[in-house]
Amino acid sequence: MRSRAILLYALLLGVAALTLVPLLWMVAASFMSPGEATTLPLRLVPRHPTFENYLHLFTRLDLARNFANSVLITVLATCGSVVVNTMAGYAFGKLIFPGRDRLFRALTLALLVPAQVGMLPLFLLLRELGLVNTYMGALIPYMASVFGIFLIRQYALSLPGDLLDAARVDGASEFRVFWWIVVPTIKPIMVTLATFTFLSAWNDFMWPLIILTDSDKHTLPLALANLSGEHVLDTELMMAGSMLTVLPALLVFLAFQRSYMRGITAGSVKG
Amino acid sequence: MSLEREQAKAARWFLTPALLLIGMFFFLPVVAGLLLSFTDFDIYAVASPDRVRFVGWRNYADLLESDTFWSAVRNTLYFVLVGAPLSVLVSLATALLVNTPGVKLQGLFRTIYFAPVVTPLVAVAIVWRYLYHPRYGLLNHWMEAVGIDAIDWLGDPRWSMPAIILLAVWKNFGYNMIIFVAGLQAIPRELYEAASVDGAGPWWRFRYITAPSLGPAFLFVGITTMVGFFQLFAEPYVMTQGGPLGSTRSLLLLMYEEGFRWWRLGVASTVAVLLFGFTLAGTLLQLRFSRGR
Description:
The complex is a heterodimer of chains A (271) and B (293). Chain A is an all-alpha fold. Chain A contains 14 helices and no strands. Chain A has a single domain, classed as MetI-like (MetI-like fold, Orthogonal Bundle), CATH 1.10.3720.10. The longest helix of chain A has 32 residues. Chain A starts with a helix and ends with a helix. Chain B has a single domain, classed as MetI-like (MetI-like fold, Orthogonal Bundle), CATH 1.10.3720. Chain B has 14 helices and no strands. Classes of the chains: A mainly alpha (271), B mainly alpha (293). At the A-B interface, helix 1, helix 3, helix 5, helix 6 and helix 9 of A face helix 1, helix 4, helix 5, helix 6 and helix 8 of B.
């Protein structure tokens, strides 16, 4: 029994180490002096930890601007997505209107189609609307999502109808019912949706790559990909840039871990 | 009933923003994408759209005869057929591992295993590019320490795709692990206890209790992982630019190059439609297979 436990924890720790090594190495290298990460024998810990690389990102390279772009797009996308999808998800889950279930089924068809099929025409459409190379254009695809509507709907389905009806009989309008009863009750799943949207907007690469053509509009991942072309030899600098991109995502995840995990399992119950 | 009329009216207000956005910026572009694949939309048409002509199936015929296209198909299928099952296997194994009864710090291990999922792909692809460095990379360094010859991971066409698969598995396994853990925790303990009393060994218990109970989770994970792996793009874009010798050029990378480097949006749309076709075929295949059992 004892040796079985040792083996079990050895496996658990081994997998944890394999998972963490790339991230830990990124942290270590980001604090090394230029050239240190490409000196043999390899060092895993910086000899004299330095913030030089981080300073470099903000002074000689203008990564603060890209950071601000990422924050702006991500925050706006998150707010938009929560408002739009919560309203729609609640309507599909709880309001009675003709054609509701047929409409919802039609919408779920969208889950079968990869977004990339429409990406080129979407680019042309936004070009006609003058939205290429604008923040608005960058955040449009995150605003409404079938996954988000689905997530809210599943949760809203469990709201007790009596509660809503009682408020209606008291003369509350549908908007009051939504604002004063529905929203406070489904807040947990709204946080889940917000976390999902935040992380997917923060991490996304392909859409911003297509729609944001000027480098002063670029998000962090785009700026990082460009830098990695010019500064391929500056390992330590690139690792500092990666840290700057990874850290906000990790922190948001750690803060809202429970909500995020709930979204994963809720989505998998009925694909 | 006027209450229901009120509800229908409110529903219209609640639904309009979402439906308008999804209709205009998802369904419309998807349909337009299908149409675009039958046109010769190119860089001249970008300037003056009235130049566009319908060319029937020509883009499809051209692509099906192009070596670049078939090489992208092969690369993508390699990534999907090897990467996706590998990723699901690792997810299942780690789910069983963290869910072993009596494991302490289960939550901590789960969080650690999950961390790569939420990291931005571009950032970790850059990190891994350095880990794969033939001379200064940690991977070769450790391999040499145990007597394995160094590999030029991203520079050798035989190893470039395995290298990208390894990164993708590392990045993704945590997601499906969570789904499997939820599935495992839904299995009643009594089933295992009863089986143990009857003298069933661990393999029997896995084969006849765990595996069947995870059936629905398997189908979901199988389909979503496959669909996700078909969308390989950022890894080769950042790590190899599709090289060496085109060995990591995926269908999406080909679409991007055709569309936004050469502005052949007609051809690029055709690539996208064919990619959709592959994805759909794979999904239907898995659904049929799961129903057949």
